[in-house]
Amino acid sequence: LPTKGVTEAEAISTLSRHLNRVPRPSNLELGIGDDAAVLRRLVGNLVCSIDCSAEGVHFDLTWLTLAEAAARALVAAVSDLAAMGSRPVAALVNLEVPANAERRDFDAIGRGQRRSGVVLGCPIIGGNIVRGTRWVFTTTVLGGARRVVRRDGAHVGDEIWLIGDCGLARVGLVLLQRGLDVADLPPSHRRAAARCLKAWKRPTAKLQEGVRLVRVASALIDVSDGLANELGHLAHASDARLVVYSEPLLKSIPSSIQRLMFWLGLDPLETVLTGGEDYALLATGASTRRPDFARAIGEVRTGKGAYLETAKGLQALRNGFDHLA
Amino acid sequence: LPTKGVTEAEAISTLSRHLNRVPRPSNLELGIGDDAAVLRRLVGNLVCSIDCSAEGVHFDLTWLTLAEAAARALVAAVSDLAAMGSRPVAALVNLEVPANAERRDFDAIGRGQRRSGVVLGCPIIGGNIVRGTRWVFTTTVLGGARRVVRRDGAHVGDEIWLIGDCGLARVGLVLLQRGLDVADLPPSHRRAAARCLKAWKRPTAKLQEGVRLVRVASALIDVSDGLANELGHLAHASDARLVVYSEPLLKSIPSSIQRLMFWLGLDPLETVLTGGEDYALLATGASTRRPDFARAIGEVRTGKGAYLETAKGLQALRNGFDHLA
């Protein structure tokens, strides 16, 4: 089955028209159009990661436009650089294209990638197109950093820091899954709903915060699959016990959003702990070095695993998300 | 639908067990297991490319084992580095996993990637797993090179050079598509058939030749989608006319393989010009600088487009493959 009259060359030309408007790195020797892209000598370390955003798994086109899906895929990939304390240099994108793709789809994708590329300072310098059964964006991000922060450096006695919101994107997703438009909601919930929808549809990567954490954090990770899950990863990598407290976690959620959670039948604490895709950052570090943009939500203790401490005592946090389940 | 009892952590652990046995680059600071991989300062330029090998498009599991498909996907990606005259440093792989995946599938993929990684000198230092509807390997390769060869440097008067075989993989694919085993063939064709099947199933990337061409070639590309197609790319990028001659092209095919082509009803010249996936190299350069491993198959003239010169005169070569068709 051919796509609806779009050839590969036309698709690439439509995408390139947008992508070439994102400022290129000064050391780009060769971009889109050859067998590979070439960057002259990077300063410091090369940080690299591959990420995938697939229709039917990570997004649904009844909830997002194709431009939003494309923009969001780049943000999600770049968030892995923020999680190292690195800044993006460039990205490469493989696009799987369903049979019913039209020319305007490539235009939408180009627009979305351009918008994200400009905001993130991350030009797409190479790519590949392949025939598929659904839209899939597979993105490799390349970053630079003089020093990085790993997952395995959490020390006993460190505080646990949350940078950004958790749970808002989950509320946005629930609204979309239930087919609730902002206009369908009671007026008192509309503003909170709009904020949560934006958190899911148009997330941002905490790049500046990531870079600033390099000097002060002992461990760092981004929260893509839910806080409980990422706490478990940090605990495992650092061979320590990470204990978060319910009070600061609840306080991290604005009260208008907590009211919306209740209205939707969502438990605020559970939502903040298991809701993914906000692309917040989770770090550990000495309390004396906590930056003003970080919220202390717990502490690193001896032992293993991730725990929640409430008035009732310690409770083990089970991991919330499996990419094969 | 969960996969057959395989969790993401088990899949990653099974894959890592194999992948960690491929020698790592000495400048690898951080490999699989964090948000991103980190390589310390690369020497020279960073060459990077993304490539995709999808079940149903690039391979079919009735023709290839999963280990072969995984090994082949890495070779195909690395061939883009050979096409720049670069050597691989490392790769990142995104794996889309169908619902019926079993633990032994990850073991097979790990085995295949390990084998290719060792042969190519290309360790996989990071990856991602996502639930899909078919097996898809999306591979980013990172390479180093002090100097690269681009597509756009062909000069009028240069020879056109073919490095490696073209058309053999197509014969192998035709045998598989027709369900013909080597044992089904007349004894006189079996050896040639085995060679063609190997060319399709277990291709290699011409890395050493690519590096040696940096000093002598004016333009370079790999032949993944057929010679006619790649000649068109070189002609377009270099703004020149590339003319290949039928005689040296036919001579490039061993006579036993030409006989097998006739037996299968394939035209040898058409097969060598349109058959893809041999991962040969196509270059241009001054005749005085042609290396011993390169075969002269034509010349660069003024004008545009890719042409075949036969006893009957010049004939335009149309591009043979569209990734969206």
Structural summary, described in words:
The structure is a homodimer of 325-residue chains. The first copy, chain A, has 325 residues and is α+β, with helices and mostly antiparallel strands. Helices cover 35% and strands 26% of the residues of chain A. Chain A has a seven-stranded mixed sheet with strand order 8-10-7-11-9-12-13. A four-stranded mixed sheet of chain A has the order 3-6-4-5. Chain A has a two-stranded antiparallel sheet with strand order 1-2. In chain A, strand 12 and strand 13 (313-316) form a beta hairpin. Chain A starts with 7 loop residues before the first helix and ends in a 9-residue tail after the last strand. The model of chain A has no long low-confidence stretch (mean pLDDT 94).
Shape of chain A: globular
Strand content of chain A: 25-35%
> Largest interface by residue count?
A-B, 70 and 70 residues
Number of helices of chain A: 10
Q: In terms of per-residue confidence, which ranges of chain A show pLDDT below 50 for 5 or more consecutive residues? A: none
Cα Rg of chain A: 20 Å
**Assembly state of the chains shown:** homodimer
Look at the helices and sheets of chain A and give the structural class. alpha+beta
Intertermini distance of chain A:
31 Å
Q: What is the β-strand count of chain A?
A: 13
Order of helices and strands of chain A: HEEEHEHEEEHHHEHEHHHEEEE
Strand order of the largest sheet of chain A: 8-10-7-11-9-12-13
Report on the biggest sheet of chain A. Answer: 7 strands, mixed
* Mean pLDDT over all positions of chain A: 94
